[in-house]
Amino acid sequence: KQEVTQIPAALSVPEGENLVLNCSFTDSAIYNLQWFRQDPGKGLTSLLLIQSSQREQTSGRLNASLDKSSGRSTLYIAASQPGDSATYLCAVLFIPGGNAGNMLTFGGGTRLMVKP
Amino acid sequence: DTGVSQNPRHKITKRGQNVTFRCDPISEHNRLYWYRQTLGQGPEFLTYFQNEAQLEKSRLLSDRFSAERPKGSFSTLEIQRTEQGDSAMYLCASSFGLVGPNYGYTFGSGTRLTVV
Fold first, then answer.
1. Which stretches of B1-116 are assigned E, i.e. beta strand?
2. Counting one residue from A and one from B, how many pairs have CB atoms under 8 Å apart?
3. What is the DSSP letter of B101?
4. How many Å apart are CA B22 and CA B34, to the nearest integer?
5. Cα dist. B21→A63, A64, B111 in Å?
6. Residue B66 CB burial class (10 angstroms; 0-12, 13-18, ≥19)
């Protein structure tokens, strides 16, 4: 079964720290991987999308890496701010086959709190 | 076009009633997806349309659930005879194709359903 796992489930850090969120997936046959941010009670905001042929993507203080062979992605947040507090979700678009179909498979998310 | 629009934002209904949600995707996106998210979990796939054709349905989509996308534009998700277990955030997303820099998913703000 194609699954996505995120560790840790929750993280609390003081403002200014650099931090890494982890995502692992069980099948290396993927089209792409996308990181989303979700504020409480809200929808999902796309942060970064990495195609299967890419190794990393950067946007401002965010950097996402992809290692297909090991089934891992990381989201690096530099100089964290209280406004970064949210849930971060990793989602993988597996190549059709097995039970994945054409849909995104999400991890359970990491709830991040950045304390002033 | 300001993105994916979902209505209503919130819906409270009594058990046994029927409810219908609407999603308006980004106009040039040919694919539309419905996901369900319960508290503290990542979103789970429900169903997917390419243009007006419903191509995949999750086993989560019981016979009380039906989705349509007439003319390949907006979509509706109806839940009949609602149960308390249907309480969740229902998210709609749209995309255009599978590969390329713009081929990520764009999510709406969701409809939060509470069944009392």
1. 5-7, 10-13, 19-24, 31-37, 44-50, 53-57, 65-68, 75-79, 88-95, 106-107, 111-115
2. 72
3. T
4. 11
5. 36, 34, 7
6. middle
Burial class of residue A100, CB neighbours in 10 A (0-12, 13-18, 19+): buried
Tell me if A56 sits within 8 A of A65, measured CB to CB: yes
Smallest CA–CA distance from A95 into chain B, residue: B98
Chain A residues lying within 8 Å of B42, measured CB to CB: 4, 6, 89, 91, 106-109
pLDDT in tens, B40-62: 899 999 998 988 999 888 888 88
Non-local (6+) Cβ contacts of B55 within 8 A are A102, B48, B49
- Distance from C-alpha of A55 to C-alpha of A72, rounded to nearest angstrom: 11
> End-to-end alpha-carbon separation of chain A, Å?
41
CA–CA separation, B84 and B61 (whole Å): 15
Residue of A nearest to B108 (CA): A43
- Strand B75-79 and strand B19-24: pairing? antiparallel
Residue B101: pLDDT over 50: no
Burial (Cβ within 10 Å: 0-12, 13-18, ≥19) of residue A3: middle
pLDDT digits (tens, 9 = 90+) for A1-33: 789 999 999 999 999 999 999 999 998 888 889
C-alpha distances (whole Å) from B88 to each of B38, B41, B61 are: 5, 10, 14
Best mutation site among A23, A45, A104, A105 for testing chain B: the one with the most B CBs within 10 Å?
Answer: A104
